[in-house]
Amino acid sequence: MHEAGMNNADSSMIPVITIDGPTASGKGTIAHRVGQALGWSVLDSGALYRLTALAVRDGGIDPADELAVASIAGRLDVCFDGGRIWLAGRDVAAQIREEPIGNLASQVAAYGPVRQALLARQRAFRRAPGLVADGRDMGTVVFPDAPLKIFLVASVQARAERRCKQLKEKGFSANLAGLLQDMRARDERDRSRIHAPLSAAPGAKTIDSSNLTIDATVDAVLDYWSRL
Questions:
Q1: H/E segment holding residue 7
Q2: Helix (H), strand (E) at residue 81
Q3: What is the pLDDT of residues 115-165, one digit of tens each?
Q4: Where can this protein be found (predicted)?
Q5: Structural domains of the chain ordered from first start
C-alpha cells in the first residue's frame, strides 16, 4: 500500500506517458492497460479530485468555498492499494465513481488552489521504471516534460453510451439522456475553466477512440511509444 504523497528523488529522469482527454473517453482503462504492458506505475489523477469531492460532501463543506476545499485536498488521508482506494481508513473505490461525485469533482477541479494542493501529490507518483498518468492536464501542467503525450478523444454520444454501460454493469441506475446532458456540461466546464483548461498539450498525439476497441487504442499508444 502506498500513500499518495510519497516523494521520489531524481524523478525527472523517469519516463512518463500522459493520457489526457474528456470524461469517459477511456483514459483510465487505457492507462492501466498501457501500464500493465510496460510494467509501469499508473496515476489516475481524477481519483484525487473525486476523493476531494467525496471528502467535501461527507465533511459538510461548502463546495463553493475554494479555500476550504483546497484545505481538504491538501490533507487528504489517502492510500491506494491495487484496485482499492482508502480515504480515512474506508475503502471508497466504488463511492468515488458515482455520477454525483464525478460532477462535484469537475466543479472543485476548476479551483486553482485545489489544483495547486494536489500538484505535488500527483508528481510523487513518478517512480522507476516509468509512469502512465491519465487526467485532463497531465501533459499540459503536471508532467510537461513527458516524452509521449496522448490526447484521447471520443464523440460525446460514444462516451455517454460507455459510461451508461459501465454504471449498469456495476449495479447503478443510469439514464443515457441524463448522462449526455451531464457530460456536455462537464466538457464545457473542463474546457472553459481558468485554471488548466482541458486541451491537447503541445506535441500531443490525438487518438479518437469512438470506433476503436480497447485493444486497438492500447496498441496505438504503445506504437507511438515504440517509435520514440
A1: none
A2: strand 78-81
A3: 999 998 999 999 999 999 999 999 999 999 999 999 999 999 999 999 999
A4: Cytoplasm
A5: 2-6+15-218 (3.40.50.300)
